[in-house]
Amino acid sequence: MNVPEIITYSIVSKGTAVAFPGFGNYLPLYTGVQSITVSVRGGTGSVHLSTTAGYKTRYQSVNMADGQTVVLPNVARPEGTTRFLSFFSNTDGADYSVTILKY
C-alpha cells in the first residue's frame, strides 16, 4: 500500500508577491501530485497553475476571498511535462497555506 506524502507551505505575502521558500514565486510541481489545497487568511488573492514559470501559460486561476479554502482540480503532472503553482496577493501580510498530496 502506498502512503501519500504530504507537503505543506505557510507563506506570508510581501506586497503582491507570495514566494515559496527556496523556489521563489513559482513552485514546480512534482510528478505524482494528486491534490492541492490552498487557503488565505487576512487578505484576498488568487492561485494559479501554469505550464511554465510565468503568467502567460496559466491554464487555471482561482480567485480567493479572505478565509477561503480551495481544492484545485486538474493538478496531475503528466510525465515529461512541467507544471507550476503560483499566487498573486491583493493584500500585504496575508497568510497563505498550501497542502500538496503526492503519491
Keywords:
four-stranded antiparallel sheet, mainly beta, Jelly Rolls, single chain, 8 strands
Task: Outline the secondary-structure elements.
Layout: E1 5-12, E2 27-28, E3 33-41, E4 45-50, E5 58-64, E6 69-72, E7 84-89, E8 95-102
Antiparallel strand pairs: 1-8, 2-7, 3-6, 3-8, 4-5, 4-7
CATH topology: Jelly Rolls
Cα distance, first to last residue?
A: 11 Å
Which percent bin holds the helix content? under 10%
* Order of strands across the main sheet: 1-8-3-6
**Alpha carbon gyration radius:** 13 Å
The second-level CATH architecture is Sandwich
Number of helices: 0
What's the CATH C level? Mainly Beta
Shape, per Cα inertia axes? globular
Helix and strand succession? EEEEEEEE
Number of strands: 8
Count of the separate structural domains: 1
